């Protein structure tokens, strides 16, 4: 018999402990399908290389999560790039540049496209390489594999084959889906942590078949042979149907024998297992779906702008072609050539007056290529670069780093950065998100007496709400009572203070016997596993939930220490009432009836040392009071009163009760129960529940427990700031209504004076109908009731009252409210309320509510935030999913778009990074279109000036490098570094965030305004340059301006204008921005010198034109100066007037900062009053409401 060092490592007969989970399976229903369709897998255990096994040709255990392979990278990534319509256009233009239609050389057309596509492909390759490295690390992990003759050697995971026997040791991950054969426990059980699969941190228990449980040594597998027949690979984590043929006997297999890849072995020295599913056949890989593709609203609007510019491009090309066709037709009349320089008499089809229509069509194609500079070729890649850099800043923000858990913020996607600045509604989980999910035992009611003097966050909030001190005596007690526990280190899970109970003083209480039974029940009725610290000797516990851990810890601290679990017993150190000393007591464990959401309770049946059979039960008040015996209700009234008080204080309550059983009753129950739990039929759970009902009755009430799930640090302050920013906050929780409401008060989502609209089916009428058991009638009446309650709520909120409303609805009612014909009414009511709290919500309901809010308000951005596996659907459904990397595991964080460690970091993420990213991306896109229209429209104007002959105004390479070098870096700096106001002012004036919610910085008016600015700038540049230079001598020799000089002058003006425009638009200069803006201009002149010095065969029209013609001519410099000032002056005047007389939110804050009024409350209040959405939740709203109430009272008194 093998033993482990720690007490929890002792052998446990799971059939005795985990009554629901384990037990012998039998061949019924599902197992009859083995060998049929979907159940065809055959595994030859310990014979992976036998002839029969190789016939099946199952895949190896190599896993790849990469998007590309070496062979598919180029075709797949190119396909991804050319899904963008802009890139397809540039590809077509590049292809046409090889034909005579092209107005410039093919090299200058192809190179920018190659640079842009290449840069994006390099980014894709880098991201995929990081995934490849993770795959390499996982695939090369080692596990012990049976090589034959009872010898095990290390082997890489990727080399595992179906049928291999592996040995996995404590705290190692399972390398594939394994069939559990045995463990170091005699009963062949093992403890498994499935956090990577479902986000749950509680341990699951698995048990091998009894026939293989004796295989404890490596040598046992020397001659082991078995054949497993089972279901084909599928994604269902919680089902497994199969059979094992061993020693000519067939045994049924259930999920209880299956160990899933990526789960971890815990509290067990080792297990032996046979590989059933490998690689991409494993259930975790079958479940690995790509997260939904999310695109921001800004990006979607950007696509529309691109289409709009395409339309402008086509119209310009069409207009030019029509004029060109007309002019060409009239080019040769009576032998006179109007455009003699085009030689229409000797031309091909391009300028042939006799084929004017064909010439116009060809010109249309030429114009489509030439005016392509209206479409910014580098826009997409620039935005991707900027977003990646923005994400790095989010990840590196020290203010969003949680030191206790060593977790920084992590932007898992950069696609949604600007969306963070436009959030209209936040849908939040409660437990673990607003609260810590770290339960503390704080109060209890025993024998009708309330114990525990601790004060909860909710009680403090309620006291603030009422403007009154804490309950009488509480503060005095806390201050005056000398509690020895205060001198010790803080005990996690325990915050109980009451001198009547601690240190064994409960012995002197009137009902000491009930108190003893109460804490004894806490020490025995659970599924926790004890672990002794070898250094300190202190016992700690692995429990299925934080609540259960808190109960066992509380029992330990109050004198009932659970310290050992064996195969059939639970051992406790108890305080003996007679001697006053601790004694050891053992309880024989007969059965455990586990907790589930339907039963809402758990029980253990134990036999004490006196031979008494006891049923110990704890559960929700809604199911426990009705199961009490007539003579067991002595303390019911007081206990109900106390549980209501605890719920009002935001505490989670459970009722504790017990009963004595006789042997005959138990034996009868156990026989039926064993048969039911060993069944594998579809109604097994229902059978087990029904049998549990038969014995969990006629109990005697002991009392109630109350545990506090504390609010996370900074939650009320964060919610207040978000509310001031105009963001609506909905809470979706599985807690009961009273707890959720009081947590709402604690975090200032609810306040005194706010009218509550409560929608529930807990009414007398509905309960009466439910007792009839007529399901159709119940459904009809329930739905009618919900519709009526919603209608009444809408009437209230639309009655013209200025009061704020809060909507509270439970999960049962929500099911009807989300039905197709009711959901729009529900949404209408919900969006009219200041706060919405959905209680008792299932994961699916959370997801459906999120979808409803998102789809009904298509122009509004929704953000979901949660920390558990039950929040994943909600996170993926919302526009932005924020995962809290907290107590409930990493599933939510891994499924999110951005992961943070605490709810309070949401304040900085949205109000600072969100606002900055939205403003930067919006300004960046507007500026991109501005600079491209400025440049592209001069090409059109020159075309018109040159009678649409297809002649480009600029040298080929000037045009090609415009977006790539001379104007690209400043816009990248804008997207990464610009700040309209500092982070401190973003947080001080949350209303600034409303610029993003209202989308004022990326409205069609603003976009078209920037486009108009670009068109006007192009007009000024073209006409000023042409009129200033066309009729006068330019060089010393009297030569007039040629096309190359005119083009270079216009181009110089444009480079200066778009860079200086950037300098005027930037609010926050850094050295990098100075370098990029002025460096871009300097680089243009350096390029002119270098490019002009190259052979004329390459530099063509740019050959020494700057050094010989433009630089020596004063008029070149004067024209540049005059045009730049003339172009920028109107924008400067407009910006100055708007800043002074029509300031936006950020302009007002800039004024306050400039004039030094940042600490002046009057000025600050004046700015805050500009908010378009009144603040209705948060403690700021509470203060305002109180102030308004006092003003009304004063007015009333004056009257």
Please give a quick description of this structure.
The radius of gyration is 38 Å and the shape is elongated. The strands form 7 sheets. The protein has a 9-stranded mixed beta sheet, with helices on both faces. Strands 19-18-28-27-26-25-24-23-22 form a 9-stranded antiparallel beta sheet, sandwiched between helices.
Structural class: alpha+beta
**How many strands, which pairing sense, and closed or not: the largest β-sheet?**
9 strands, mixed
**Poorly predicted runs:** 1-24, 472-489
How far is the N terminus from the C terminus?
90 Å
Please report which band the strand proportion falls in: under 5%, 5-15%, 15-25%, 25-35%, 35-45% or over 45%: 15-25%
Helix content: 40-55%
Indicate the overall shape: elongated
Residue-averaged pLDDT: 82
Strands side by side in the biggest sheet = 16-35-34-33-17-29-32-31-30
| Count of beta strands | 35
Secondary structure tally, helices: 42
Q: What is the number of independent domains?
A: 7
Radius of gyration: 38 Å
Sequence-ordered SSE layout with sheet pairings:
Blueprint: H1 14-17, E1 41-45, H2 51-56, H3 73-81, H4 85-96, H5 106-139, E2 142-148, E3 151-156, E4 165-169, E5 177-183, E6 189-193, H6 195-198, E7 203-207, E8 226-230, E9 242-246, E10 249-253, E11 258-259, E12 264-266, E13 270-277, H7 283-286, H8 297-329, E14 332-333, E15 336-337, H9 356-370, H10 379-396, E16 410-411, E17 423-428, E18 435-446, E19 449-451, H11 457-466, H12 474-480, H13 484-487, H14 512-524, E20 529-532, E21 539-542, H15 546-557, E22 560-565, E23 569-575, E24 582-593, E25 601-607, E26 613-619, H16 621-624, H17 636-648, E27 651-661, H18 663-677, H19 684-695, E28 700-711, H20 715-724, E29 728-732, H21 737-746, E30 755-759, H22 764-772, H23 775-797, E31 805-810, H24 811-817, H25 823-831, E32 835-839, H26 843-856, E33 861-866, H27 872-877, E34 880-884, H28 891-895, E35 898-900, H29 905-945, H30 956-966, H31 968-977, H32 983-988, H33 994-997, H34 1004-1029, H35 1043-1065, H36 1071-1092, H37 1096-1099, H38 1105-1110, H39 1114-1141, H40 1145-1155, H41 1161-1168, H42 1179-1198
Parallel strand pairs: 17-29, 17-33, 29-32, 30-31, 31-32, 33-34, 34-35
Antiparallel strand pairs: 1-8, 2-3, 2-4, 4-13, 5-11, 5-13, 6-7, 6-12, 8-9, 9-10, 14-15, 16-35, 18-19, 18-28, 20-21, 22-23, 23-24, 24-25, 25-26, 26-27, 27-28
Helix pairs in contact: 3-5, 4-5, 5-30, 8-9, 8-29, 10-29, 10-31, 11-21, 14-15, 18-19, 20-29, 23-25, 29-31, 29-34, 29-35, 31-36, 34-35, 34-39, 35-36, 35-39
């Amino acid at each position: 018999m093998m033993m482990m060092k720690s007490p929890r490592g002792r052998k446990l007969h799971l059939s005795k402990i985990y009554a629901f989970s384990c037990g012998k399976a039998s061949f019924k229903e599902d197992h009859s399908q083995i060998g049929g369709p979907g159940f065809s897998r055959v595994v030859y255990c310990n014979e992976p290389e036998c002839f029969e096994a190789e016939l099946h040709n199952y895949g190896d255990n190599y896993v790849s999560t990469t998007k590309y392979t070496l062979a598919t990278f180029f075709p797949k990534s190119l396909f991804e790039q050319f899904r963008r319509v802009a890139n397809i256009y540039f590809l077509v233009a590049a292809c046409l540049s090889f034909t005579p239609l092209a107005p410039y050389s093919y090299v200058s057309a192809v190179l920018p496209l190659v640079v842009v596509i290449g840069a994006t492909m390099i980014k894709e390759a880098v991201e995929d390489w990081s995934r490849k490295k993770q795959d390499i690390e996982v695939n090369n992990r080692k596990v012990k594999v049976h090589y034959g003759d009872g010898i095990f050697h290390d082997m890489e995971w990727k080399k595992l084959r179906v049928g291999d026997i592996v040995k996995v040791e404590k705290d190692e991950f399972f390398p594939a889906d394994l069939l559990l054969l045995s463990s170091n426990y005699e009963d062949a059980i093992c403890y498994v942590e499935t956090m990577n699969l479902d986000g749950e941190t509680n341990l699951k228990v698995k048990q091998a078949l009894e026939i293989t449980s004796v295989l404890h040594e490596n040598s046992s597998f020397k001659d082991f042979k078995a054949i497993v027949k089972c279901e084909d690979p599928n994604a269902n984590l919680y089902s497994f149907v199969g059979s094992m043929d061993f020693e000519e006997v067939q045994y049924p297999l259930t999920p209880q024998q299956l160990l899933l890849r990526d789960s971890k072995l815990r509290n067990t020295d080792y297990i032996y297992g046979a590989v059933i599913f490998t690689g991409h056949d494993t259930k975790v890989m079958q479940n690995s779906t790509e997260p939904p593709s999310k695109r921001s609203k800004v990006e979607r609007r950007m696509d529309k702008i691109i289409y709009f510019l395409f339309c402008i491009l086509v119209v310009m090309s069409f207009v030019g072609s029509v004029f060109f066709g007309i002019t060409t037709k009239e080019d040769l009349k009576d032998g006179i050539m109007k455009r003699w320089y085009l030689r229409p008499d000797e031309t091909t089809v391009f300028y042939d007056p006799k084929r004017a229509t064909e010439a116009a069509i060809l010109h249309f194609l030429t114009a489509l290529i030439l005016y392509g500079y209206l479409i910014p070729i580098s826009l997409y890649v620039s935005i991707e670069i900027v977003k990646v850099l923005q994400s790095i800043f989010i990840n590196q923000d020290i203010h969003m780093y949680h030191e206790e858990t060593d977790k920084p913020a992590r932007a898992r996607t950069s696609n949604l950065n600007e969306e963070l600045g436009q959030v209209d509604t936040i849908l939040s989980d409660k437990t673990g998100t607003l609260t810590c999910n770290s339960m503390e035992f704080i109060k209890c009611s025993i024998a009708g007496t309330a114990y525990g003097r601790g004060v909860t966050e909710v009680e403090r909030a309620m006291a603030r709400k009422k403007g009154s001190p804490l309950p009488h005596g509480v503060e005095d007690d806390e201050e005056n009572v000398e509690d020895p526990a205060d001198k010790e280190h803080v005990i996690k899970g325990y915050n109980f203070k009451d001198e009547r109970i601690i240190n064994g003083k409960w012995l002197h209480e009137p009902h000491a016997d009930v108190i003893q039974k109460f804490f004894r029940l806490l020490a025995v009725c659970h599924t926790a596993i004890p672990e002794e610290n070898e250094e300190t000797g202190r016992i700690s516990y692995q429990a299925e939930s934080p609540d259960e851990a808190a109960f066992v810890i509380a029992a330990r601290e109050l004198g009932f220490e659970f310290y050992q679990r064996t195969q059939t017993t639970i051992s406790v150190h108890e305080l003996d009432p007679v001697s006053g000393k601790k004694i050891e007591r053992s309880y024989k464990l007969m059965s455990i009836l586990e907790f589930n959401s339907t039963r809402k309770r758990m029980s253990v049946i134990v036999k004490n040392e006196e031979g008494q059979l006891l049923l110990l039960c704890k559960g929700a008040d809604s199911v426990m009071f009705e199961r009490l015996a007539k003579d067991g209700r002595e303390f019911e009234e007081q206990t109900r009163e106390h549980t209501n008080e605890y719920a009002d204080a935001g505490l989670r309550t459970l009722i504790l009760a017990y009963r004595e059983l006789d042997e005959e009753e138990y034996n009868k129950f156990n026989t039926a129960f064993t048969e039911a739990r060993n069944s594998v039929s579809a109604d097994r759970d229902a059978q087990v529940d029904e049998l549990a009902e038969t014995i969990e009755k006629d109990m005697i009430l002991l009392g109630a427990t109350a545990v506090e799930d504390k609010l996370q640090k900074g939650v009320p302050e964060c919610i207040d700031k978000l509310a001031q920013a105009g963001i609506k906050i909905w809470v979706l929780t599985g807690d009961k209504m009273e707890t959720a409401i009081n947590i709402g008060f604690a975090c200032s989502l609810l306040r005194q004076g706010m009218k509550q609209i409560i929608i529930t089916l807990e009414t007398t009428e509905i309960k009466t109908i439910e007792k009839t058991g007529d399901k159709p009638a119940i459904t009809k009446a329930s739905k009618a009731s919900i519709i009526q309650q919603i209608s009444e709520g809408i009437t209230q909120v639309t009655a013209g009252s200025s009061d704020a409303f809060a909507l509270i609805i439970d999960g049962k009612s929500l099911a009807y409210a989300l039905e197709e014909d009711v959901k729009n009414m529900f949404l209408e009511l919900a969006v009219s309320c200041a706060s919405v709290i959905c209680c008792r919500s299932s994961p699916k309901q959370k997801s459906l509510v999120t979808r409803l809010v998102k789809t009904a308000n298509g122009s509004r951005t929704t953000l979901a935030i949660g920390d558990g596996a039950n929040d994943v659907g909600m996170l993926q459904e919302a526009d932005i999913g924020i995962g809290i990397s907290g107590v409930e595991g990493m599933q939510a964080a891994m499924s999110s778009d951005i992961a943070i460690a605490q709810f309070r970091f949401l304040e900085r993420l949205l109000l600072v990074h969100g606002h900055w990213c939205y403003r930067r991306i919006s300004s960046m896109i507007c500026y991109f279109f501005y600079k491209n229209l400025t440049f592209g429209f001069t090409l059109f104007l020159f075309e018109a000036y040159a009678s649409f002959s297809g002649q480009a105004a600029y040298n080929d390479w000037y045009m090609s490098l415009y977006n790539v070098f001379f104007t690209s870096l400043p816009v990248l700096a804008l997207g990464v570094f610009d700040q309209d106001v500092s982070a401190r002012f973003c947080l001080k004036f949350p209303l600034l965030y409303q610029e993003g919610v209202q989308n004022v910085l990326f409205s069609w008016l603003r976009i078209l305004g920037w486009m108009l600015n670009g068109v006007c700038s192009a007009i000024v540049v073209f006409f000023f340059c042409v009129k200033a230079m066309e009729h006068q001598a330019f060089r010393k020799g009297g030569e007039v301006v040629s096309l190359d000089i005119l083009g270079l002058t216009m181009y110089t003006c444009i480079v200066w204008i778009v860079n200086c425009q950037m300098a005027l638009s930037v609010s926050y200069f850094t050295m990098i921005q100075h370098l990029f803006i002025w460096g871009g201009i300097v680089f243009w002149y350096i390029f002119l010198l270098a490019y002009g010095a190259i052979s004329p065969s390459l530099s063509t029209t740019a050959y020494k034109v700057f050094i010989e013609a433009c630089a020596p001519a004063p008029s070149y410099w004067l024209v540049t100066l005059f045009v730049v000032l003339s172009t920028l002056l109107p924008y400067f005047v407009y910006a100055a007037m708007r800043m002074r007389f029509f300031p936006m939110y950020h302009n007002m804050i800039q004024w306050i900062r400039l004039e030094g009024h940042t600490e002046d409350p009057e000025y600050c209040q004046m700015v805050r009053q500009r908010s378009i959405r009144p603040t209705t939740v948060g403690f700021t709203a509470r203060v305002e409401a109180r102030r308004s109430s006092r003003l009304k009272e004063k007015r009333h008194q004056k009257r």
